[in-house]
Amino acid sequence: MSNQTSAFHTYPQDEYTITDDALKKSRFEVEYFAVRARAESVRFLLEFVGANYISRAPVNWPASKKDTPFGMIPVLTHHKPDGSVFE
């Protein structure tokens, strides 16, 4: 038997779920094209921790580009329970 440690670890899901009440009541929105690319890691993380989120693609990207931070996507928007938005 080898004394080496594995490069792959498994973690129990319940240890990494959201426990903060404010975060549980928050809603997240991921805006990116409907492909697996730059936003996929964010989607994986939100799914892993059990966050309340939606993933949406821009309907008309050339027209909505000016409304995004830095004119780029992906954009992650945090809708806090008090109604404020953090982008």
UniProtKB/TrEMBL annotation:
InterPro entries: Glutathione_S-Trfase_N, Thioredoxin-like_sf. Residues 26-87 form the GST N-terminal domain. This is GST N-terminal domain-containing protein. It comes from Dissophora globulifera.
